[in-house]
Amino acid sequence: MTEQKRNEIITRWRGGASIRRIASDLRLARNTVSGVLAQVQAQRAGSDAAAPSRRRSRQLDRYEPVLEELLGRYPDLTATRLLEELRQRGFSGGYTVVRQRLRELRPKAAPAPVIRFETARGIHYGKPGVMFSNAEGIGLPCPEFVRRFP
After folding, report:
1. pTM of whole model > 0.85?
2. Maximal C-alpha separation, the chain
3. pLDDT tens per residue, range 66-87
4. Residues in Cβ contact with 123 at an 8 Å cutoff, skipping those fewer than 6 apart
């Protein structure tokens, strides 16, 4: 968001406009307008608005050492198996929470490289003069402009 938009929100708010009206006029979400106003009020109160807000504790936070130990020992551990292990240790949460946390902890695999191949003009898969095939697999002749393409 630009500084100009922030100033516009603050100006309209001080002018007495409601959050809903400001959001509608500037085509923003009401939560966005409320967030900007909260930042301004926090700065005026003397607190640091740039400081990150405190994250809510999750039910799975108590089992973080267990998660790291199991993933260190079994890197390909599935969410279902991890849930079984956690349930044996007293975890009462659900599968979705475990699956989402597992996705955060596991490193993302690099995408597999794509092997490209180039053919001479007018040749497709080793068939000279055939560029396309129809649903029955019968080759159709390559258009002349493709054959002449450098």
Report:
1. no
2. 77
3. 999 999 899 889 999 999 999 9
4. 129, 130
3-state secondary structure the chain: CCHHHHHHHHHHHHCCCCHHHHHHHHCCCHHHHHHHHHHHHHHHHCCCCCCCCCCCCCHHHHHHHHHHHHHHHCCCCCHHHHHHHHHHCCCCCCHHHHHHHHHHHCCCCCCCCCCCCCCCCCEECCEECEEEECCCCCEEECCHHHHCCC
CA gap 146, 141 in Å, rounded: 10
Please give the Cα distance from 80 to 17 (Å, whole number): 51
Identify whether the C-beta of residue 140 lies closer than 8 Å to the C-beta of residue 132.
Answer: yes
